[in-house]
Amino acid sequence: MLISYENKVALVTGAGQGIGLAAAQAFAEAGASVVLADVNEAAVCAAAAALVSAGRKAIAVHCDVTDDGQVAAMIDRTIKTYGRLDAAFNNAGIQTPQTPAAEMSNADFDRTITINLRGVWNCMKYEIPHMLKQGEGAIVNTSSQGGMTGFPGQAAYIASKHGVIGLTRTAALDYAQNGIRVNAICPGAIRTPMAEALLKGNTEIEAALVKSIPIGRLGKSEEIANAVLWLCSPWASFVLGHALVVDGGFTVW
């Protein structure tokens, strides 16, 4: 299945590395003009520059998704540069340290919810008005396999990812009649820099993790990117308010 994004504009947050970077690359390779946004300015600028050097259309924007002003400026830059916004992948997020629920600090809980959940809402708040003017658009929000399950020591992260699914479903209903489709992606254990930091090179931990995945391996960022491109494309035109789990079968157990 060949998905073309020629003459389309895609925005990806958390695009400096991992799943966000893979999605930005995939959108660009499919012909889209891509806005790569990340709080890590150096990383996102390097990523956009690499795409431009490869003949793709891309710009980098420094953006903290918890800051309304920065999100508004990101969307304004997108519209001023490319004139429209067809697809938005609200992917920026963090993982919190492994801590039992009652021992987690207020600061860690609030920071996780603010970035992972409010950040998604902040982005949609500024993306949707432009899509309404166009009469169409597609949004994908990053939840997690953890948005479908629980996990010890990850109360704030799991709560935030469950919240993303609820937010996604409600926004999907709010704008279904306006040509805007909102869905969520729920990645499983994907080999990203964030995952590597959690594993800390411990082969025993990785082996135990892999044992819990029926397909027998960690996922690749590109596999999530492919699912995101499909969700944003006309091929998924009847998919609305869905949380697509891409986890190698982890949640099937």
From TrEMBL:
SUPFAM superfamilies referenced in this protein's UniProt entry, alphabetically: NAD(P)-binding Rossmann-fold domains
InterPro entries: KR_dom, NAD(P)-bd_dom_sf, SDR_fam
Statement: the UniProt record of this protein carries the keyword NAD: yes
GO molecular function, one term: oxidoreductase activity
Record key words, sorted: NAD, Oxidoreductase
Domain Ketoreductase: 8-193
Family statement drawn from the similarity comment of this UniProt entry: Belongs to the short-chain dehydrogenases/reductases (SDR) family.
Database matches in NCBIfam families: PRK07231.1, PRK12826.1-2
Identification of the protein by name: Oxidoreductase
Native source species: Candidatus Desulfovibrio kirbyi
Lineage of source species: Bacteria, Pseudomonadati, Thermodesulfobacteriota, Desulfovibrionia, Desulfovibrionales
